[in-house]
Amino acid sequence: MAVRAALLRHVRVPLQTLNPAVTLTGPKWGPPSLRWMSSHDDHLTKNEVTDRVLSVVKCFPKVDPSTVTPDVHFQKDLGLDSLDNVEIVMALEEEFKLEIPDKEADKIDSTNLAIEYISNHPMAS
Amino acid sequence: MSGVSTAAYLARRAAQKERVRILYRKALKDTLNWAVHRHLFYQDADALRQRFETNKHVEDLDTIDRLIANAEATYDKWRHPDPYVVPWAPGGSKFHRNPTPPAGIEIVYDYGREDN
Fold it and tell me: Do the Cβ atoms of B88 and A25 come within 8 Å?
């Protein structure tokens, strides 16, 4: 018993009091900051949208990847036809988990427009 | 007179092209709904593309209109009864599941610990 008490005195972990004000209103819990595992505040930056749009367009089989730039027109510059344009827009929808209405998707005909539309879309992820 | 007819011709062509694009888009999405797996979808999508390509060079406007009407009827007939909908979109599984609270309601994080 005495040995146990002596041993415990040595291995005891010093008690740390958590400051409740810090834990509750600190950066982890305050409303304006980012919450862990939260689906909010994860809006894409424009650079990220640009990279992902360009990678989708480069992966399209009929496109030469070296010609793709952020302001390229699908039909005039890449030599695609209108049905290829539809396929690219559908691939972009799947990449960003979007559902673009038919009339609006029909207007997207260049990487520039696609980047602008997706980065302004609140549900793009 | 010829200018007017040319403008009318171009307008009608543009309308037809838009109809074809939108039809192809809807049909392509529907193909993915029927063939859920990718390796099946790619073949079906190629077949669909071939069906559009066969009539690529048709010139007569009335024939084009008839072909589009037939294709739209076929699409309507084979439309998927339970298509995939993106979760947040109307009809999706998360649609209106977590609505924003009404204005004027806020969470008090330091309730009972206010400074005053």
Answer: no
Which comes out higher in pLDDT, residue B115 or A101?
A101
Is the CATH number of domain A46-120 3.30.70.270? no
For residue A79, the distance in angstroms to the closest alpha carbon of chain B comes to 16
- pTM for this model (two decimals): 0.76
Longest dimension (CA), chain B: 83
- Asked if residue B36 is part of any domain, the answer here is yes
- Arithmetic mean of pLDDT over chain B: 92
Q: Is the ipTM of this complex over 0.90?
A: no
Flag whether B17 is in a domain.
yes
Structure tokens at B2: 């010829």
In chain B, how many domains are there? 1
Taking CA–CA distances from A95, the nearest residue in chain B reads B86
Please indicate, yes or no, if residue B88 is contained in any of the structural domains: no
Please indicate, yes or no, if residue B59 is contained in any of the structural domains: yes
What's the token pair of residue A32? 């304006």
Cβ pairs bridging A and B (under 8 Å): 46
Helices (H), chain B: 2-34, 38-53, 61-77
For chain A, residues with pLDDT lower than 70 are 1, 7-8, 12-42
The set of catalytic residues of A is: 81
- Tell me which of B78 and B115 has the higher pLDDT: B78
Per the CB < 8 A criterion, the answer to whether A59 and A53 are in contact is: no
